[in-house]
Each structure stands twice: as structure tokens, then as C-alpha cells.
From TrEMBL:
Coiled coil: 6-89
InterPro entries cross-referenced by the UniProt entry: LRRFIP1/2
Keyword terms, alphabetized: Coiled coil, Wnt signaling pathway
UniProt key word Coiled coil: yes
Source organism phylogeny: Eukaryota, Metazoa, Chordata, Craniata, Vertebrata
Family the UniProt entry places it in: Belongs to the LRRFIP family.
GO aspect biological process, one term: regulation of DNA-templated transcription
Protein name: Leucine-rich repeat flightless-interacting protein 2
Length: 97
């Protein structure tokens, strides 16, 4: 009976050691995954920050371009009015002669 118990305990010990080895391997694999996911998350955050900076830069450039367009449209309008006045003055001078 004692030998049977010893054999049973030896089997249980062997099984527990196998389970422990399996669990240690799982831990190592999961730690590797965690490290990869952490690295990927850090890279994604870095890319996100770069994209946000690029977006802000492009929005500034867009505002500058829109301001410049508005300024040029105002200048064009002013010049068109001056041209119309000059044409009207020329027509008036030619009709007086």
C-alpha cells in the first residue's frame, strides 16, 4: 500500500513538474507578446503624435493659403474697379474731343 502511494505521489509530482514547465513556457510566451504589444502601442502613439503635428502644420498652411486667396481677391476687385474707372475716364475724354 505504501509503495502504491509512493508511486502515486511520484506520478503526481511528475505531472505537477510538467504542468509547471508548461506554465513557465506560457508565461515566457505571454511576456514576449506583452513586450511586442507594448512596443507596437508605443510606435502607434509616436505615429499618432507625428500625424497630429502634420495635421496642425497643414491646417496652418491652409489658413495661410486661404488668407492669401482672400487678400488677392480683394486686390483683384480693387484693381478691376480702378480699371473700370480708367475706362470710363478714357471714354469720357474721347467723347469730349
Amino acid at each position: 500500500d505504501a509503495n502504491r502511494q509512493i508511486s502515486e505521489y511520484k506520478f503526481k509530482l511528475s505531472k505537477a513538474e510538467q504542468d509547471r514547465t508548461t506554465l513557465e513556457q506560457n508565461i515566457a510566451r505571454l511576456e514576449g507578446q506583452v513586450a511586442r504589444y507594448k512596443n507596437a502601442a508605443e510606435n502607434a502613439e509616436k505615429v499618432e503624435d507625428e500625424l497630429k503635428a502634420e495635421k496642425r502644420k497643414l491646417q496652418r498652411e491652409l489658413r495661410t493659403a486661404l488668407d492669401k486667396i482672400e487678400e488677392m481677391e480683394m486686390t483683384n476687385s480693387h484693381l478691376m474697379k480702378r480699371l473700370e474707372k480708367m475706362k470710363a475716364n478714357r471714354t469720357a475724354l474721347l467723347s469730349q474731343q
